[in-house]
Design goal:
The complex is a heterodimer of chains A (192) and B (388).
Chain A: H1 2-42, H2 46-60, H3 63-71, H4 80-100, E1 109-112, E2 116-119, E3 122-131, E4 134-144, E5 148-155, E6 158-159, H5 160-189
Antiparallel strand pairs in A: 1-3, 2-3, 3-4, 4-5, 5-6
Chain B: H1 2-28, E1 33-37, E2 40-43, E3 59-61, E4 92-93, E5 99-100, H2 107-111, H3 120-137, E6 152-157, E7 162-166, H4 191-216, H5 221-234, H6 236-245, H7 249-264, H8 278-281, H9 288-294, E8 302-305, E9 309-312, H10 313-325, H11 327-333, H12 338-364, H13 370-387
Antiparallel strand pairs in B: 1-2, 1-3, 4-5, 6-7, 8-9
Helix pairs in contact in B: 1-10, 4-12, 5-12, 6-7, 9-10, 9-13, 11-12
The chains are: A alpha+beta (192), B mainly alpha (388).
């Protein structure tokens, strides 16, 4: 009987910890997405939007983790300077890609679904977004190190990082870290 | 008009898909290799006939391997070893399609028989079962820093393939850097041809579709939405029949109700009234490619269709199925004049093009290699659709 009550207590504690963690992540995401949507709504054009959302996104997205995963195993061969350069360039691309999905003057209607705990300190929050008359399923992947950070955005099953992984992996196989950085520089240099 | 389109599609099937099928067959010839994940057994696509260089995965042979009972550590000293039917000794294809035997391996290793007679499929089944129970039990995964050294109780090593039996309770943790190593991908056996069509489509998008789409956007948003709603409603048989073929009877029922509501209350589908009914608002749309996937048909290889864009051998056949199930096709083939046929189908084509350009721009605008970005995006999207 005593052991049974102990198990119940442990389960209750584990559940409350899980719920608290999940709620934190949900609050964090809602705040971040709403902030970006408000900036987009008030923006005059798309290029201005990218520069305006950058300070917000830097605090909510883990660009270092994203770049590392987009490059894959080749990341181990990057030196400190290359890591920094690649992360900065990739951050610019991600911000551009993410902000290009917003149209100034349009506000999305977002429905948040229950979060899924995929591993300790790793969470996926599925959402349904009604935007410009179309509906999209968007999953936000988040991880907690010190604070929660977005590590991937999956739109209709298409992961942002997985899509870049395919491209950067091919670059790395061609010419290692310099080829990856060169390709990122070239992509960033293209005028929007 | 439609006869021309149908003839073109048939010719394309013969000239593009069949060589693609042959090419993908030749690529897959040496890929009877699988990895085991907690979701089950997954086939390994061999890029150029080789396993990934830096992979830490354990690879298994798909088919049973019956080899003579003989420990690897004590090779039988034969003066002239005969080649065994082991896949290792068979010639493999490199990235350029050239075949070669494993020249870098010492002859003794390349031709040596594996040790004890073992049914590999039995090991695979056992491993899948074990990993499923492990993942169900594992409430507290082991931190990355305390990654266990996998105890190998028995191991058979061949030049490229290691068949390993892991210690009970050992967890397989993914390399932190390789989280996206198993991204969904469709084998691209005819990449040069695909890149050619991709370039043609890109030019078409830029010089023809984009201006048409821009002109179309002059229409008020309500008008464009109405056009989109009407055609979506008309295409009801495609979704309904495929729901039935996939045994999704609940979805088929919902699709039927949606069609009725939109046709009657929504004045022939102009207004999508179903959006205001929660049960009918988000019914996942089924198509023939998805049905084929549910029936276990593989993608075949990646194909870039002229004008239509990314597809695979399976999804191209699926498109033909969707085309046949679409009432617009029936009307067009039903003896109406060419002008009437164009009048019926053109608004839908422009409307679809408009939506497609948006998606195309989103994927390619900030891409490093737009071709690879579209291929990856398409593969992932179709994987998601097939799993619905």
């Amino acid at each position: 009987m005593r052991s049974f009550s102990l198990i119940l207590t442990a389960l209750a504690l584990a559940h409350s910890h899980l719920s608290a963690s999940t709620i934190d992540a949900e609050i964090f995401l809602k705040k971040a997405v709403t902030e970006v949507a408000h900036i987009a709504d008030a923006s005059e054009n798309s290029s201005a939007l990218a520069s305006k959302v950058r300070p917000v996104l830097v605090n909510v997205i883990s660009f270092e983790l994203m770049t590392r995963r987009a490059v894959g195993l080749g990341w181990k061969k990057f030196n400190e300077a290359q890591i920094k350069e690649a992360t900065d360039l990739f951050a610019t691309l991600i911000i551009r890609t993410y902000s290009s999905k917003f149209t100034p003057g349009e506000f999305p209607e977002i429905t948040y679904k229950p979060a899924i705990l995929v591993a300790p300190e790793r969470i996926e929050i599925p959402t349904r977004i009604l935007y410009r008359g179309s509906q999209y399923e968007v999953i936000y992947r988040q991880e907690k190190s010190v604070d929660w950070r977005i590590t991937d955005v999956v739109i209709e099953g298409v992961s942002l990082i997985a899509t870049y992984r395919t491209q950067l992996d091919a670059q790395f196989k061609q010419g290692g870290a310099p080829a990856v950085i060169g390709a990122l520089k070239k992509a960033v240099a293209i005028r929007q | 008009m439609n006869q021309v389109l149908a003839t073109f599609l048939a010719c394309f099937m013969v000239f593009a898909i069949l060589p693609c099928y042959a090419a993908s067959k030749s690529v897959d010839a040496g890929s009877g290799i699988v990895i085991i994940t907690k979701e089950g057994v997954k086939s390994v696509y061999l890029d150029g006939g080789r396993l990934p260089k830096n992979s830490t995965e354990t690879y298994f042979l798909k088919s049973e391997v019956d080899v003579k009972s003989r420990p690897l550590s004590k090779p039988k000293p034969t003066p002239s070893p005969k080649p065994t039917p082991s896949p290792v000794a068979q010639p493999r294809k490199d990235g350029h399609g050239n075949t070669s035997t494993n020249a870098k391996q010492p002859p003794a290793l390349a031709t040596a028989s594996l040790p004890t007679s073992r049914k590999v499929s039995a090991i695979v089944k056992k491993e899948v079962k074990k990993r499923k129970s492990e993942s169900a039990k594992s409430a507290t995964p082991i931190p990355q820093s305390k990654k266990p050294v996998l105890e190998v109780s028995s191991s058979k090593t061949t030049p490229n393939i290691t068949i390993t039996k892991k210690a009970p309770g050992a967890m397989v943790l993914k390399d932190e850097f390789d989280e996206y190593g198993d991204v969904a991908g469709i084998p691209d056996a005819i990449e040069p041809v695909n890149r050619g069509f991709f370039w043609v489509n890109d030019q078409l998008y830029y010089f023809v579709f984009r201006p048409v789409s821009k002109a179309y956007r002059v229409l008020p948003k309500q008008a464009r939405t109405a056009v989109s709603n009407v055609y979506e409603n008309v295409e009801f048989p495609v979704r309904f029949v495929n729901d039935l073929l996939q045994f999704k009877f609940k979805n088929a029922d919902l699709e039927f109700r949606k069609f009725l509501v939109n046709s009657v209350v929504g004045v022939g589908g102009i207004v999508r009234v179903s959006d205001r009914i929660p049960a009918l608002a988000n019914i996942p749309a089924s198509d023939t490619g998805q049905t084929l996937a549910k029936w276990g048909v593989g993608h075949g290889c990646y194909i870039v269709l002229p004008v239509l864009g990314p597809s695979s051998a399976r999804d191209t056949v699926g498109r033909a199925g969707d085309f046949a199930l679409n009432p617009l096709t029936w009307v067009s083939f039903g003896g109406v004049s060419a002008a009437a046929s164009i009048a019926i189908t053109a608004p839908n084509a422009v409307n679809t093009m408009d939506a497609r350009i948006d998606t195309y721009d989103t994927i390619t605008k900030n891409a490093i290699d737009p071709y690879q970005a579209v291929r990856s995006g398409y593969s992932q999207y179709r994987k998601k659709v097939a799993s619905e």
